[in-house]
Specification:
By secondary structure, this protein is α+β, with helices and mostly antiparallel strands. It is built from four helices and four strands, in the order αββαββαα. The chain has helices at residues 6-16, 46-59, 85-97, 102-108, and strands at residues 24-25, 28-29, 67-72, 75-80. The chain is globular and about 55 Å long. It comes from Lentinula detonsa.
């Protein structure tokens, strides 16, 4: 698993197994519930975890000369270019929607994108 020693992988599995949290606001606190995913806010080890988690996004475009990606924690920027606006727009659509593309990766990795933040 990407060269990570098995004891570390097992430790991470135990660390996130059976987690519970509560939400508190004003004078109200929810009952405990299991969060559906994600990392603990402020967890210093999250920096390392995001390197592995987001690394799969970069693998989608690694071998293409006209695409590049930049990742920082839970922010990602994927860029492509072509000879015209129309072709660039088409290529972005392919990068997102084709089998094995970004949206499929997101579904498989319990990831949601803020599509309203996308820019063209």
């Amino acid at each position: 698993l990407a060269g990570v020693p098995e004891p570390i992988v097992e430790w991470m599995g135990r660390r996130y197994a059976r987690r519970e949290t509560r939400l508190t606001f004003d004078d109200y606190t929810t009952d405990s519930f299991a969060p559906p995913g994600g990392l603990d806010q402020g967890d210093a080890f999250a920096v390392v975890q995001y390197l592995f988690y987001n690394g799969g996004l970069l693998k989608l475009i690694r071998d293409k000369a006209d695409e590049m990606g930049i990742l920082f924690m839970d922010d990602s920027t994927l860029v492509t270019w072509a000879s015209s606006f129309r072709n660039t727009h088409y290529r972005l659509g392919q990068l997102m929607s084709d089998p094995g593309g970004i949206l499929e990766w997101a579904r498989l990795h319990n990831c949601t994108f803020g599509l309203e933040k996308f820019q063209l």
